[in-house]
Design goal:
elongated; mainly alpha; single chain; 341 residues
Length: 341
């Protein structure tokens, strides 16, 4: 069996002779030590910071005057190098369409459409003074940035003179450009909780027995109100139709015009008899009983608008305490001037 063992090759014999020399005993440990030292040096190299990455990018892009672009804009991909987390959230919002759509100009694209040109910011290694940041800016400056684009839209063109605009409400109080809860409108909170943050008194109305179905999801605050401004009372929608137009979009049977009109409906509108958000009274009435509401106008008191009730109307009797039992068309009628039908 020993005769079948192969003799060592010539290369193996040369390696054995080299290792037995005295010089090998010195060179081999030095080589191993040098390898360990180089590996350790590479392992402890510090991770490049955001500023160093930006300088590296700037030096590579503008390493000579002939290669320096004239545009002060660098694009959102450059912002991603340091702000990757914000960029990831940004790609999920409607604002990212400014990056992907070819119809937007360079100044209207991506991050720089809000924060301004980024070239000086990049060249300086991330100097925050070289870029527009919403932090520390006045509300007027913040809103002006947003309105540069959004003021051209019909929904928002009246924001400056609106109740929110005059009350120094910032766009960022309701909207979050980077991390919105609702992507559709970039809202910072869900409705109606977002509105309740300032309009806390309205919350109580929507938990009353008779109310509009906001908490149930049947409608929202913005169904009736335009938070960005309008020309109607309480910033209700539909300028051309007046304050009551938003009510008549759902309550179409009350719209008219009628041959015989009820004067309060015509002059004062729905709110003369109804509470719009919620009430303890049926049909959202301002009074617990119908006769009490009618007697605010139909009384013997001089100077009060409204006809006097007939003498046989004895308000003490229950049959005369519900006026709408007979006057069923109190919003207006095309048949009877007393609104019987």
């Amino acid at each position: 069996m020993i005769s079948h063992i192969r003799p060592p090759s010539r290369a193996m014999r040369d390696l054995a002779r080299a290792l037995t020399r005295p010089s090998a005993l010195v060179i081999l440990p030095l080589g191993l030590a040098l390898g360990v030292l180089l590996g350790t040096e590479q392992a402890v190299q510090p991770k490049p910071t955001s500023a160093s990455r930006m300088r590296t990018w700037a030096n590579a892009w503008w390493r000579s005057p002939s290669q320096q672009p004239e545009s002060p804009y660098v694009g959102s991909e450059t912002c991603k190098m340091c702000h990757e987390d914000l960029y990831t959230h940004f790609t999920r919002t409607a604002h990212f369409l400014t990056v992907t759509s070819p119809k937007y100009k360079e100044a209207e694209k991506g991050c720089e459409s809000c924060h301004g040109p980024g070239r000086e910011h990049v060249e300086s290694g991330g100097d925050v003074e070289k870029i527009f940041s919403f932090r520390g800016r006045s509300i007027a400056e913040q809103n002006a940035r947003c309105l540069t684009c959004h003021e051209q839209q019909q929904e928002r063109h009246n924001f400056r003179p609106s109740a929110h605009g005059l009350s120094q409400v910032a766009c960022t109080d309701c909207h979050s450009a980077h991390s919105p809860v609702l992507l559709e409108d970039l809202l910072a909170k869900r409705l109606p909780e977002l509105c309740y943050a300032c309009h806390g008194e309205v919350r109580q109305d929507f938990i009353k027995p008779f109310r509009h179905r906001v908490h149930e999801g049947g409608m929202s605050c913005t169904t009736c109100h335009n938070p960005h401004g309008g020309f109607n009372v309480a910033q209700t929608r539909d300028v051309l139709g007046g304050t009551d137009a938003i009510c008549l979009k759902c309550h179409t049977d009350k719209q008219g015009p009628f041959v015989f009109e009820h004067v309060p409906v015509r002059l004062e509108g729905c709110a003369s008899c109804h509470v719009p958000h919620g009430s303890n009274n049926p049909r959202l009435l301002t009074r617990p009983r119908v006769d009490q509401l009618c007697l605010e106008c139909h009384t013997l008191t001089p100077g009060i608008l409204g006809s006097e009730p007939p003498a046989f109307h004895d308000i003490r009797r229950p049959r005369f305490q519900n006026c709408t039992t007979c006057h069923v068309k109190v919003h207006g009628s095309n048949v009877n001037r007393l609104f019987f039908q």
